[in-house]
Amino acid sequence: MDNPRHIIHMDLDSFFVSVERLKNSKLMGIPVIVGGGDRGVVAACSYEARKFGVRSAMPMRQARFLCPDATIISGDHEDYSKYSRLVTEVIASSVPLYEKASIDEFYADLTGMDRYFGTAMFCKELKTKIVKESGLPITYGLASNKLLGKVATNEVKPNGQIEVPLGTERAYLAPLAVEKMPMVGQKTATLLKDMGVSTIKILSEIPPEMLIRLLGKNGSTLSRRARGVDDTPVIPYIEQKSISTEDTFSCDTMDLDFLQSRLVRMIEKIGFELRHQKKMTGCVTLKLRYADFNTVTKQCRIAYTASDHTLLETAAALLRKLYDRRLLVRLLGVRFTDLVTGAHQISLFDDTQEMISLYQQIDSIKSQFGPLSLIRASGVDKPDKDRQRVKQRALQLQRAYKT
After folding, report:
1. What sign results for the dihedral spanned by CA atoms 209, 214, 220, 224?
2. Could you say which of 105, 155, 179, 313 is catalytic?
3. Which residues are registered as beta bridge partners of 189?
4. What average pLDDT does the chain have?
5. Is 63 helix (H, G, I), strand (E, B) or coil?
6. Beta strands at 329-341 and 243-253: parallel, antiparallel or unpaired
7. What is the pLDDT of residues 352-382, one digit of tens each?
8. Higher pLDDT, 341 or 119
9. What proportions of the chain, in percent to the nearest 5, are helix, strand and coil?
10. Contacting residues for 321 by C-beta, under 8 A, at least 6 apart
């Protein structure tokens, strides 16, 4: 290869749990599970919980059964997004080209940087910088392609680092179990093992034509990857195209007042996020899932705005049109799309300077004390955990202003 690539794969270790531990040091060293109620699934779990068999996407009831002593946390997606943006900013300011594969996973193309200083040394310094600025543990794998970087990262987690030297790709993959190869899910792994293919070395020795007959067009890609070949480029990070949130209720409901109060809370939550990112939306989409899992959506295009009262009016109208079956509702979701960058523009017909000033003051308070520090009264339903959090925020706010 005339110009060998240098690709680093970075993965924040048990990201949601690590963020929670930054907020509460008492969670260090104990089993922690981040997820919804009994009807939800595990969003993340600590390595201590994984020893009991707990895994991401596992039903919460099963996770509780496997690890009854685990500390359960519902999670705070605002905080997770905040820390993800912080790490993204550190990486963006340090590397020439990066790809954000998920909220906690990154690739960076460091090709050519070895001409000026050692790529391995740069990666160590980048990890140190991320840990210093975010407080979060991170693992990385440095290799000649994305495939090797990801596999290597998974092998040395948590809080590890590794370099797979150029020319050793096939030898590195050879002894690993076949299910550790990306693209090989549980079903494919079972199929291969039934054929006696237990390691990537054996997989790499199968003629490509045989894999194509067995797995279709994916067989060709899998054959190349088993030999350590991956030409997939690092795709430059593209800014998000939507802002959304959804709520799966602990109990199915057909209480319209309850649905409206949750809708208010959700609109205010992502409306604040919209303004925080200095964006406006031109389309509101509402999603409703009934107890029989039938899911319906409806959207409405609007003049670009970031004002809660306008978004609430649109969302409420969509809810009235969408909820046309007298059945129990399981889930409610809202999504803003057609996003544009820019501050809110005053409408000569709808807004006043006082209204714009009010939003500025509201957002200032929410930025200081959190999104729950101020919400509309119509967004507070009957006593629950969220209401208690609202009361706590209100008390903190009162004490802050007294001092």
Report:
1. negative
2. 105
3. none
4. 84
5. helix
6. antiparallel
7. 445 556 656 666 666 566 655 556 555 455 5
8. 119
9. 45, 20, 35
10. 298
- pLDDT tens digits for range 43-91: 899 999 999 999 988 888 899 999 999 999 988 877 887 898 899 999 9
Report the alpha-carbon angle 52-58-62, nearest 5.
60
CA dihedral over 249, 251, 254, 255, signed as positive or negative: negative
pLDDT for the residue 186: 86
Annotation marks residue 105 as catalytic: yes
Q: At what angle do helices 77-92 and 256-276 cross, to 10 degrees?
A: 20
Class of domain 1-167: alpha beta
How far is residue 403's CA from residue 401's CA, in Å, rounded to a whole number? Answer: 5
Cα distances from 202 to residues 206, 225, 297, in angstroms, run: 7, 13, 48
Q: Which residues are documented as binding site for Mg(2+)?
A: 11, 104
Helices (H), 59-199: 60-66, 77-92, 119-134, 146-156, 169-173, 186-194
Looking at beta carbons, which pairs linking 214-219 to residues 24 or more positions away fall under 8 Å?
215/188, 218/183
- pTM of the prediction? 0.65
- The answer, yes or no, to whether residue 300 has pLDDT greater than 50, is yes
Q: Which residues are annotated as a binding site?
A: 11, 104
CATH 2.30.40.10 fits 243-402, yes or no: no
* Cβ(369)–Cβ(400) below 8 Å: yes
Q: How many angstroms separate the CA atoms of 258 and 388, rounded?
A: 17
Domain boundaries in the chain?
Answer: 1-167, 170-238, 243-402
State the CATH architecture for 170-238: Orthogonal Bundle (1.10)
Evaluated on CA atoms 138, 142, 146, 151, the torsion sign reads negative
For residue range 157-182, list pLDDT tens digits in order. Answer: 999 999 999 999 999 999 999 999 98
The residue written with tokens 């809708």 in the block is: 263
Between the CA of residue 299 and those of 280, 318, 357, what are the distances in Å? 16, 7, 29
DSSP code string of 335-363: EEEEEEESPPPPPTTT--HHHHHHHHHHH
The label of the residue with tokens 């967004």 reads 379
Can you give the pLDDT at residue 302?
Answer: 86
